[in-house]
TrEMBL record:
Organism expressing this protein natively: Kribbella karoonensis
One Pfam family cited in the UniProt record for this chain: Hydrolase
UniProt feature coiled coil, ranges: none
Keyword Hydrolase: yes
Membrane spanning residue stretches: none
Gene3D superfamilies: HAD superfamily/HAD-like, Putative phosphatase, domain 2
Protein name: Haloacid dehalogenase type II
Length: 221
């Protein structure tokens, strides 16, 4: 059993599909969202690998401006697209699942490579803000997940050993990083995506947060 459930944010809790509307409004292809998000992670991971750091928003803005090129009002367009992260909806399973997990007596926090402040309205509008004990990001350890320093920082804030925490995420690289840092792990597999064999396998694999809640409630009995 665990004391603290650590939640990834982007894609794990939030549905990023509405960001495609911002891409289309900016004159970019809707499928460009996937490449852009992957590039943000790539550059964040690369900087972490050489003991350097840049904020998610900084990388997101620069990479998007590069795609817009010499277009007029680039800064305004970039700001509008990036601000879309503050208006994303939660996946339908998130609120009911987290409510049940909270009722089971498990502390819940978020840990994101993005900025914690960007998700406050998202969580408030989705009805889960009051369930979250802490909303953390990697700006303090200055190491992006999946670096172990990010997960250990969360453990320090919560005052628990890493082995009493579990990370829930849709990203195999996040699951792998958390496992290597000593956390238990739960892979949220909404899309039924094959889990890469090169990564450490999750302790649990569930289709959504309601299913995860059911497992945790059983363990809590």
């Amino acid at each position: 059993m665990i004391d603290v459930l650590v939640l990834d944010v982007n894609e794990t809790l939030t549905d990023m599909e509405p960001l495609r509307d911002g891409f289309e409004a900016a004159g970019l292809p809707r499928h460009g969202l996937d490449e852009w998000f992957a590039a943000i992670l790539r550059d964040g991971f690369a900087l972490t690998a050489v003991d350097a750091y840049a904020a998610f928003g900084e990388l997101a803005a620069e990479l998007l401006a590069d795609r817009l090129g010499a277009e007029e009002n680039v800064a305004e367009t970039v700001s509008e697209v990036v601000s879309g992260f503050t208006r994303l909806p939660l996946h339908p399973d998130v609120a009911p699942g987290l409510q049940k997990i909270h009722e089971a007596g498990i502390r819940i926090i978020t840990l994101t490579n993005g900025a914690a402040g960007m998700s406050e309205n998202v969580f408030r509008n989705g009805g889960i803000l009051s369930l979250l004990e802490h909303r953390l990001d990697v700006s303090v350890p200055r190491r992006w997940k999946p670096h172990p320093a990010a997960y250990r920082y969360a453990a320090e804030v919560c005052g628990v050993p890493v082995e009493r925490m579990a990370l829930a995420a849709v990203h195999p690289w996040d699951i792998d990083g958390a496992a290597r840092a000593g956390l238990q792990t739960a892979y949220i597999d909404r899309r039924k995506t094959p889990y890469p064999k090169v990564f450490r396998a999750p302790d649990l694999s569930v289709p959504d947060f309601e299913a995860l809640a059911g497992v945790l409630q059983e363990k809590a009995k």
